[in-house]
């Protein structure tokens, strides 16, 4: 994979070691994959040694011995959690987060903030580290608001979900998405605050993806949102995904490519990079599955599902993807096909 740096040198030389936290996760594994394709070496954190075995096996076979290593960070919220992991690396992609979707803000938000601050503070102790990328989320800007016309911009923060998340109990399950959104909002804000106040020796960029779809690299992954389309294909049922609101999607490989750009491109400084490809709803998923796999039976469309009417300037991400030699964002249909992992028309 070649990225057009417009004649400039990358911020970290090819062959450098990059730390990827949560490397066994859906996005983290793809960030590692794209970094390895670009000629970098990867050290990935996992919560337990066993969780990293498939990562080392997969990427070791694909890219060769010595290109991938893992290290255990059992609890990212513990002080000094990433201090050892950051030693000897040239850049950090902090992808790990809490995807428990607990409705209790006290069980999620402080730990996500502490993990992010621990990662950025550990990086600040290492003069070798020149770039830090934080994996944020569209939820750090706004929750999905079907049927509402508004503009999504990098100047916005999801204060609405922060207020909902920290409202007094009871902590019912319908609060879980607000708690998740608040965790990403407040953690990203704390990372920017740390860099602004401490002025470390690295550049910070953040990547904010919406609903990730696409290839699942291992059956040992829960795969987060990546499990949605494949689950519908395998079971013929929507399950709780049928209640998911219309929003934007992005191919997980494009999300990972944007992380690589944010790590190596000298033109990207203090950027919040939006990873929004196309708006969709789960009726679009069903229509695409019926088209690709006409011999299979899928549920009827959901009535009254609505549309995401938000406006997003996603041109920066598209231009960065073109510098990887791509046409821009990977299409919705291609992403569904990647997600299923089966030959179409079967």
Can you give the helix content as a percent range?
Answer: 25-40%
Structural class by sheet pairing and helices: alpha/beta
Sheet with the most strands: spatial strand order: 3-2-1-4-5-7-10
Element-level helix/strand string: EHEHEEHEEHHEEHEHEEHEHH
Radius of gyration: 19 Å
Can you walk me through this structure?
The protein has a 7-stranded parallel sheet with strand order 3-2-1-4-5-7-10, sandwiched between helices. A 3-stranded mixed sheet has the order 8-9-11. The protein is built from 10 helices and 12 strands. The mean pLDDT is 95. It is of the alpha/beta class and 346 residues long. It starts with 16 loop residues before the first strand and ends in a 6-residue tail after the last helix.
Which features does this protein show?
three-stranded mixed sheet; 12 strands; 346 residues; alpha/beta; seven-stranded parallel sheet
Helix-strand blueprint:
Elements lengths: L16 E5 L4 H12 L3 E6 L6 H11 L4 E5 L18 E4 L10 H20 L6 E5 L15 E2 L6 H7 L10 H23 L4 E7 L1 E3 L12 H10 L11 E5 H13 L7 E4 L2 E3 L1 H11 L18 E2 L2 H8 L9 H9 L6
Parallel strand pairs: 1-2, 1-4, 2-3, 4-5, 5-7, 6-12, 7-10, 8-9
Antiparallel strand pairs: 9-11
Brief rundown of the structure:
Helices cover 36% and strands 15% of the residues. By secondary structure, it is an alpha/beta fold.
